[in-house]
Amino acid sequence: TQALLKDMAETMYAAEGVGLAAPQVGILRRIVVIDVGDGVRYPSHPELAVKGSRSPDWVRGEVRRLKKLGLEPIPKLNFSTAHDAWLGEYGRMVTTKPYYRVCREVIRDAAEMFDHPRFLHIGYDEEKTHFQRGYQCVRVDEVWWHDFLFFVKTVEANGMRPWMWSDYGWDHADFTEKCPKSVLQSNWNYSDLDGFDLSKYKPDARRLKILKLFLDLDKAGFDQGPCGSNWKSERYKKEGPAVNNSIAGLVKFCRENIAAVRLKGFMMAPWANCLETSNRTNLEGIDLFAKALDA
């Protein structure tokens, strides 16, 4: 596993600026999730591009190169209203016909540029008022579900499987009932300060909600790719050890509590860029995952 991840790390840095959101680490598959956003020029909407954005032909060439290396590149377009600045003015038109049209067209473009991949990661994380203060658009309740199901159907209509961050389920008990089972779930846990023993938490503890969602998703029959990180929160910087090794705890917890047939792999999200200045952080996270998976 460590050799496998070393190959992935070398490929990440050879990508010359394509932002890597997180590699999914599996036994049979090696997946690199690439956060596309405004980093490419979409054929249908070139106005979304920023200075330095890559051309469609460059993306197609990079996809071919990664595949030759035995990697499976997966596009990520985050449609959460907390993370959709890449949509420009359309990000302020949520739940309107122009918004749906643009989103439908860039999803189609991503499918074509990535040679019709198995998955498309739609993001959809941190979409609640607490995270959206300072943003111009917020959607909740039935409007949230309406738009979410639009993205699920649109991704599937383009021959891909939707993949999402699962944190909406932390505070919405009906999430596992309403969400289509076809959506690959990546619930995330970035800390081990309070451990993985659910019995020690108060009923309203945020961390209990996070850990319990892994169990609820499994009980409901969802495929999962749990996400860990060596990123440090402010609390972790004050109270935690020098290295955030919540990854080991996450791998152990998920292997013990998620059915093997539904545990499709793990994601590592260091939340650092792919420049040489972040080499240490990114490689550290990969090494921690390698050790956890080999344990």
Keywords:
295 residues; alpha/beta; 5-stranded mixed beta sheet; globular
Write a structural description.
This protein is an alpha/beta fold. The protein is 39% helix and 11% strand. It has ten helices and eight strands. A five-stranded mixed beta sheet has the order 3-2-1-8-7. The chain has a three-stranded parallel beta sheet with strand order 4-5-6. Helix 2 (56-68) links the parallel strand 2 (30-35) and strand 3 (72-76). Helix 9 (246-257) packs parallel to helix 10 (279-294). The N and C termini lie close together (10 Å).
Helices, strands, pairings?
Blueprint: H1 2-13, E1 20-25, E2 30-35, H2 56-68, E3 72-76, H3 97-113, E4 119-121, H4 129-132, H5 141-157, E5 161-165, H6 175-178, E6 184-186, H7 206-220, E7 227-228, H8 234-239, H9 246-257, E8 266-268, H10 279-294
Parallel strand pairs: 2-3, 4-5, 5-6, 7-8
Antiparallel strand pairs: 1-2, 1-8
Helix pairs in contact: 1-10, 3-5, 9-10
